[in-house]
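Kindly draft a sequence, keeping tokens residue-aligned:
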Amino acid sequence: MIDSIYLAFINIITSHNSFLTFILMFTPFIVFFEGPLQLITMIGIFRFAKQQLAQSDLLTQLPHVSCCITCYSEGKSVINTIKSLTFQTYPGLIEIIAVVDGALQNKDTLLAVQSCKEFVENTTNRKLLIIPKWQRGGRVSSLNAALKIACGEIFMALDGDTSFDNNMVVNAVKQFNNDNIIAVAGNLRVRNASKSLATRLQALEYILSISAGKTGLSAFGIVNNISGAFGVFRKKILDLIGGWDTGTAEDLDITTRIKQYFGRNKNWKIVFDPYVIGHTDVPETFLGYFKQRLRWEGDLFYLIGRKYLDNIRPRLLNWANYISTIIITYFMQIILPFVITFYTIYLFYTLPSAYVLALYFMVYLFYVFVLFTYFLLYWLLVSDRLNEDIIYFLYIPLFPFFAFFSRINAALAITHSVINKSHLDSSMAPWWVLKKGKF
């Protein structure tokens, strides 16, 4: 079989007709879609590096910061989250609001939060407010409950199992020196990366798609999503749009709703800062990863393909965010998984297996080269953890396989969402809350 693949590979390279066929099949993806997006992101990374040289490190104001920690079943791990916020180097007031959802059945988490009360209150400029929600209402209800009592000008929406670098608040607040910035997307890194091959590849995915990808896109004002685990907002903006809306994928939901004001407020911006850093755990097995992404990808289709389908217009989003939504969300995340899935089936059905595998080997070599260049650019110009990140060069040869099967999984997730309305069966909120949504 290996000999057959090798011969087919040589045939593709040396035969004019075979190589032309390869180019015609391969070019549309690279030239018209993935290539330009990758190029824009790389240029954006260069722009970011140039802007960093001119950016001031001084805090020009010390606004009151409210940090909402949404807790459900974290248990004692929420203590690390509260401590990481208490130990922030930010000299201003930080109000930590811990909302324990379903506190009646989550007494361990509630007790863990309550055990931090004295510790936080004895720290200068730190305050801990605890909201025990006895009946479970989901993450959205927790965020809105905290928003109602928050006193800060800056509101942070944080997961109860996420910890943070001790300069996170300082770096986030500095962004709001610019009056046009209304929200900051935080950078998430994988805390349990060394646990398994699955966690290593997810850590590399986080670096490529979040740390590097959002850095490049942010330079052009087109951040596609504010992570639900780590988002920072001007509170007045959240008050303007009425807080979070019921349903799943609340992060993409609120990002989309905020962007609908961009057409009328030309100077408003959502930015991503790679140095506003939080740390989260990811599934330790490939099965756990694919199950998680079934929900994530299905929820994305529910929001963009159904809930906000009529709201994706340049008049609302502005042209830059409209075009980026069409390319990044609709094409790259919704259409492309089906194209790759059916294209692969079609090739194996119509061509000899050895030829198809040789063809994909050429595609693989191309993507390894692009990924290596892309990661090198991030490592040199963005990363603040050079020694920690250098190990991921070793995992780049495996990443195309990981990404390929992730695309197949995304196609399954979207199909599941269309047929079974999977967004109504989510661990993010009880069914009676999700049923209240329009869709």
The first strand starts at residue 65 and ends at 71. DSSP finds 17 helices and eight strands in the chain.
